Amino acid sequence: LYFAREGHLYVQRAGEGARRVTQGSAWHRDPHVRGDTLYYAADSAGHHDLFAVTVDGDGQPVGARRRLTTH
Fold first, then answer.
1. Which of 18, 26, 40, 49 has the most Cβ atoms closer than 10 angstroms to its Cβ?
2. What is the β-pairing status of strands 28-34 and 61-67?
3. pLDDT tens digit string along 22-65?
């Protein structure tokens, strides 16, 4: 389960506590997972754009995020 709280994205697996998966001061929202990719919106550049990052079996990001749109 991914969810947004206070501007950051978290992952929570059954029976475990929530773990933050985003860093920095940007506001992150609207998480969606498809396969092993987490998609989300973030205002890293001052406008909300869509990003994607590969996640591992624990739901943690692996590698660099990819910017999908430019506003």
1. 40
2. unpaired
3. 887 788 889 999 999 999 999 877 788 999 999 998 888 999 99
